[in-house]
Write a structure and sequence with these properties.
The protein is an alpha/beta fold. It folds into 2 domains: 184 residues, Response regulator (Rossmann fold, 3-Layer(aba) Sandwich), CATH 3.40.50; 160 residues, 3-Layer(aba) Sandwich (Rossmann fold), CATH 3.40.50. Helix content is 44%, strand content 15%. The protein has 14 helices and 12 strands. A 6-stranded parallel β-sheet has the order 2-1-3-4-5-6, with helices on both faces. Strand 10, helix 11 and strand 11 form a beta-alpha-beta unit. Helix 5 packs across helix 6. The protein is globular, with a radius of gyration of 21 Å.
């Protein structure tokens, strides 16, 4: 099997999902030949850094504008630069001689769908939706299967005309190590709080929270800043009692030993927490898709979401940490969610007899 996984570098979630899907396939089919391609790097090799830089700046500084742009593009039914991109997709698929395409980014699904329609071929296209909310941009005419995070997402797709047989509730892809049982060193006399802000290290109102938590003797705080080196240096300098680190591939270890994770509600982080049974604490989500993820957290009772100003975050966090009954209830709900997910490799849904010739 030759499999192409297409993704995008808008945040770290789409690429993380791609890596998780690759790991899942290789666990059941070690001989599979899998390549992961960033669609923006491939289509716009000379300007991809500028595109991603503008995205990061917009998310960090102008979240309202980002939300407006996100909602606007979600309503678009046309695929920009379709003809030129289809030509590039044609070269890409010929180069790798692909049997199946998997997408973890909406534009990838749209372009492969346009390619399939243009070339009149039936190369399987599987789309992994990386948030609970599925905008129209995720839905493409020639997608063969959708892998979604929850029943909510499935119902949303059904309401938009996607057939029931094309939807699998798999959860949002996470690496296997988040699902594995592992013993971690825990100080029983102290609560462990993990703070993460995604790839950009964005956590609202962290200054006041850190200044208070760092002076509490019964709480250990770890702050993972991702690729935000400026934030990492600031925390190390101003809050020496807090364990601060940048990008790490051991997030699963930190989650498993934590009693609570304070974070942005990205789709990947959400399901990493679900698989490690770590209750979530969300402070005023501001990005469109993360607001929908936060609603899911609240509805499923797997964490707490602070929606408005005026809450004493530190007092609220410490109160939650003392409420063992509530924390155990959240953990139970997380376990129930993970037990209901379909965790089979996407190759299970692949039928070579249905594959048509594209070239």
């Amino acid at each position: 099997m030759k499999i192409l996984i297409l993704t995008g570098g808008f945040g770290m979630g789409h690429d993380s999902a791609a890596q998780a899907v690759k790991e899942m396939i290789l666990s059941s089919e070690p001989s599979a030949n899998i390549d992961i391609i960033d669609i923006i790097d491939y289509i716009f090799p000379k300007s991809s850094k500028v595109i991603y830089g503008c995205f990061n700046f917009m998310v960090s500084k102008f979240s309202g504008l980002y939300n407006f742009f996100n909602k606007f593009t979600a309503r678009r039914t046309s695929t920009p630069l379709k003809k030129s991109v289809v030509r590039k997709i044609d070269l890409l698929l010929k180069k790798y001689d692909i049997d199946m395409v998997i997408s973890t980014f909406p534009a990838c699904s749209q372009y492969i769908s346009a390619y399939k329609k243009s070339k009149k071929c039936d190369i399987p296209l599987y789309t992994y939706i990386t948030d609970i909310c599925a905008n129209e941009e995720w839905i493409s005419e020639k997608t063969d299967m959708y892998f979604v995070g929850s029943e909510n997402t499935k119902n949303l797709l059904l309401s938009k005309g996607v057939k029931d047989g094309k939807i699998v509730i798999s959860g949002i892809p996470t690496k296997q190590k988040f699902r594995e049982e592992k013993l971690v060193n825990i100080e029983e006399d102290k609560k462990e709080v993990l703070i993460m802000g995604g790839g950009l290290g964005l956590v609202p109102y962290y200054d006041n929270l850190l200044s208070k938590l760092s002076n509490m003797n019964d709480i250990n705080v770890t702050f993972i800043t991702g690729k935000n080196k400026k934030l990492l240096d600031k925390i190390k300098k101003e809050y020496p009692k807090i364990k601060a680190l940048g990008y790490t591939d051991k997030v699963d270890d930190y989650m498993k030993k934590s009693d609570l994770v304070i974070t942005k509600p990205g789709g990947i982080t959400l399901f990493e927490a679900i698989h490690t049974n770590t209750p979530l604490y969300i402070i005023r989500p501001f990005l469109y898709q993360e607001i929908e993820n936060a609603r899911f957290i609240q509805e499923q009772n797997i964490g707490k979401v602070v929606w408005t100003k005026g809450t004493d975050i530190c007092e609220d966090v410490t109160s939650l940490l003392k409420n063992e009954i509530l924390l155990d209830y959240m953990k139970k709900n997380m376990k129930d969610i993970s037990c209901k997910l379909e965790t089979l490799s996407p190759l299970v849904y692949y039928n070579k007899k249905e594959v048509g010739l594209c070239f």
